[in-house]
Design brief:
Elements lengths: L20 H5 L16 H10 L12 H12 L7 H5 L3 E3 L6 E12 L5 E11 L3 E3 L3 H10 L2 E2 L1 H16 L3 E10 H4 L10 E8 H4 L1 H12 L4
Parallel strand pairs: 2-5
Antiparallel strand pairs: 1-4, 2-3, 3-6, 6-7
Helix pairs in contact: 2-3, 5-6
The structure holds zinc ion.
């Protein structure tokens, strides 16, 4: 069965940050003009502008607090997505034992240490055990976990755990490749280098042949 609580897809020792209380209390604050969700933190952004040495009242910055607020609401929208609604009606009974691979799923996330973007691609594979999921739902799962404050390793593991929980397949494999602006912009990392993380469950963990089959899929560049 599909769990109504997305956090139950994780192992207990890997407790992730919960949705802040105020978001539970005010899950739908909308900007009336654009009808886009906001987080109600325009004053905070104004203060931030002052602190970095800007004049929040100069013309170019007048609407910046609202724009930042709305953009932040979007970029952290994963906290407000529900797994049930994402996979709803898209899990099918299917007598298929072949590896299913969804590769090159673009994602954009923010590192929880600096709140700067990291972005790249995720490759997700599973071996069904009687159940498959609509292919378009896999990128939605990636989105639900990437649009949060994250570390790449946890993001990768959460995607794998989630697919595992929803489908109870014979195995799940997830590889993410990302570039971290917090390292690139601050000069910690050479431009152009990327970080790779992986999570292997079930057959992908136990069977090196299965794992290698997936990894060779991932390495093959599609046109
Ligand atoms: Zn960082």
């Amino acid at each position: 069965m599909i769990s109504s609580n997305e956090d139950s897809a994780q192992s207990p020792q890997e407790k992730t940050p919960q949705m802040p209380d105020f978001l539970h209390e005010n899950p739908h604050i909308y900007d009336e003009e654009s009808n886009a969700p906001t987080l109600g933190m325009t004053e905070l952004v104004k203060e931030m502008l002052s602190k970095i040495g800007e004049d929040p009242d100069r013309e170019g910055l007048l609407r910046t607090p609202l724009r930042v607020d709305k953009s932040m609401a979007y970029l952290t929208g994963g906290y407000r997505m529900e797994l049930d609604k994402i996979v709803n009606n898209a899990v099918f009974t299917e007598d298929c034992n072949e590896m299913v691979v969804v590769k090159d799923i673009e994602f954009y996330s923010m590192c929880e240490h600096h709140m700067l973007p990291f972005f790249g691609t995720a490759h997700v594979a599973y071996i069904p055990d009687g159940k498959v999921i609509g292919l378009s739902k896999v990128p939605r799962i990636v989105e639900m976990y990437s649009r949060r404050l994250q570390v790449q390793e946890r993001l990768t593991q959460q995607i794998a755990d989630c697919v595992n929980e929803v489908l109870k397949p014979k195995g799940v494999a997830v590889v993410t490749e990302a570039r971290h602006l917090c390292m690139m912009m601050r000069g910690v990392e050479k431009q152009g280098s990327s970080t790779i993380a992986s999570a292997m469950l079930g057959a992908f963990k136990k069977n090196s042949e299965t794992r290698n089959e997936f990894l060779s899929f991932v390495r093959t560049r599609t046109v």
